[in-house]
Specification:
With 471 residues, the chain is an alpha/beta fold. 43% of the residues lie in helices and 20% in strands. The chain contains eleven helices and 15 strands. The strands form six sheets. Strands 4-3-15 form a three-stranded mixed β-sheet. Strands 6-7-8 form a three-stranded parallel β-sheet, with helices on one face.
């Protein structure tokens, strides 16, 4: 029946076949071109960004499959790390996950360290409870009679050594497919000839893959497979992701409170500087090597967010990509018409709360860095802020308050570093519940909440951009 109908694809496919007695190579392509699917650089992950495909199952159920970049990219571990960061960022916008599908081939002689490390990282991010939602999908299994093959024992060994124990690997959560029958249908449509034996083999492969696909869908829709809600994703990795995400809103809010406190200390009737975050509808960066526009607000000079269009090569300057920092929103400023006298006690107490929280995050990052070599985004951002205020000070404007802000930030950075050094000398472990409590508390500060809202809005638009609904 499948041979009588035109194949349908939701993403383009491309593969090479050898045909004829002289084994002539033929490239078969099918489907519309898609910039998200790169088949022209072998070894690199074909899928460039996470993309979701929504299928209607019956009359009441929709299933969203999320296609992600793969690991083991030939561009190196840095690219693998970027891919993993992208995956974690993408799924963090979802309310829940029903299943985490790990795709493997059945004929591996060993499971490489890249797979092991990123498998552990994914599970460390999602937390221990995610074990119940893991599914193993084996591809290209016709040669192993639709079974896990040599990879099975290797996978069992990897799971037994995982930090998260008791991850199930059994028939009920394991599915074996083969795409050769689909390739056969596409190639036949492209004029490739097959003999009777090959057609019979592909027909059997098709039937087995359909059976496994039906079993997978049934498993996903069963009531016994409980959704894994995001509010249960509790782990050191997830907490780190949350803090990383709110680093800019948190530190920009803190710096602006410092500004306004200094303004009111000079003149209690002065107008306050107000943060005005603006949503961005395209990927943008700030280049920290290029000169940025300076504007004065009340008693402060402030560098503006001069945006550059984000791409592999910046279209606005010749600076290297590593000098650019991607941002989710543009930060503008205005003077508030409200007189600041009544706000002074609030600002003092709020900035103290922020400083205390940031110091606790310093200890968290110190402990976290003892487990990995990842950088500290809070310290990096503080360093950038100190450099900005130092630049303003170099203009020698005696009427501005930037030198006082520079002094405050330098001392706060010293306090941050000292807290990390002290933390490293203690045996105290990370108190995860306390860290999550701090995250939730400062997330409710109005200025931070507004900036975080725009980050979520930007991420939501990204998901919608890379989503296809197939009804």
């Amino acid at each position: 029946m499948a041979r009588c109908r035109k194949p349908v694809v939701v993403m383009p496919v491309s593969f090479m076949m050898t045909v004829g007695d002289d084994f002539k190579e033929k490239i078969v392509r099918f489907g519309d071109e898609d910039s998200n699917e790169d088949y022209y650089h072998p070894g690199q992950s074909v899928t460039q960004h996470c993309r979701s495909y929504v299928f209607q199952i019956g009359t009441k159920t929709k299933i969203r499959f999320i296609d992600t970049p793969g690991m083991g990219d030939t561009r190196g571990l840095d690219q693998d790390d970027l891919n993993m960061q992208h995956i974690l960022s993408f799924i963090s916008n979802l309310s829940h996950l029903n299943a985490i599908c790990i795709l493997l081939k059945p004929n591996e002689s060993r499971l490489n360290i890249v797979l092991r490390s990123y498998f552990d990282r994914l599970l460390n991010f999602l937390g221990e409870t995610a074990r119940h939602n893991i599914i193993f999908c084996f591809t290209n299994t016709r040669a192993t009679f639709f079974a896990p093959g040599n990879t099975g024992p290797l996978l069992k060994s990897m799971l037994s050594s995982s930090a998260i124990k008791d991850i199930p690997f059994k028939k009920s959560n394991t599915f074996c497919f083969d795409s050769e029958s689909f390739r056969y249908l596409v190639a036949k449509r492209d004029g490739v000839e097959f003999d009777k034996y090959q057609e019979d083999e592909y027909q059997q492969s098709w039937a087995s893959s359909v059976t496994e696909s039906d079993r997978l869908l049934q498993y996903l829709c069963e009531a016994t497979l409980k959704p894994y809600p995001q509010n249960e994703w509790r782990s050191v990795e997830h907490a780190q992701f949350r803090i990383n995400q709110m680093t800019r809103p948190m530190l920009e809010t803190t710096r602006n409170f410092f500004r306004n406190i200094l303004v009111l200390q000079r003149n209690r009737t002065s107008r306050l500087i107000k943060l005005c975050p603006i949503v961005l509808h395209h990927s943008s960066t700030i280049c920290y090597k290029c000169d940025r526009t300076r504007k004065r607000y009340s008693d402060f000079w402030i560098l503006q967010d001069d945006l550059h269009i984000d791409s592999d090569q910046c279209k606005d300057c010749d600076c290297p990509r590593q000098n650019h920092v991607e941002i989710d929103y543009r930060l503008e400023y205005e003077l508030s018409d409200e007189i600041g006298t009544e706000s002074f006690p609030y600002m003092k107490s709020t900035v103290e709360q922020l400083q205390t929280t940031i110091i606790e995050f310093a200890k968290f990052y110190a402990k976290k860095r003892s487990l990995s070599n990842q950088t500290d985004p809070i310290l990096s951002t503080l360093k950038g802020m100190v450099a900005e205020e130092k630049e303003h000070c170099s203009k020698n404007d005696p009427t501005c308050l930037n030198p006082f802000l520079y002094y405050i930030l330098v001392n706060f950075r010293k306090e941050y570093k000292q807290a990390q050094k002290t933390s490293m000398l203690t045996d105290a472990s990370i108190n995860l519940s306390s860290i999550y409590d701090l995250i939730e508390k400062i997330s409710k500060i109005d200025e931070i909440e507004k900036q975080m809202s725009l980050i979520k809005q930007k991420q939501k638009s990204f998901i919608e951009k890379y989503e296809k609904e197939l009804l």
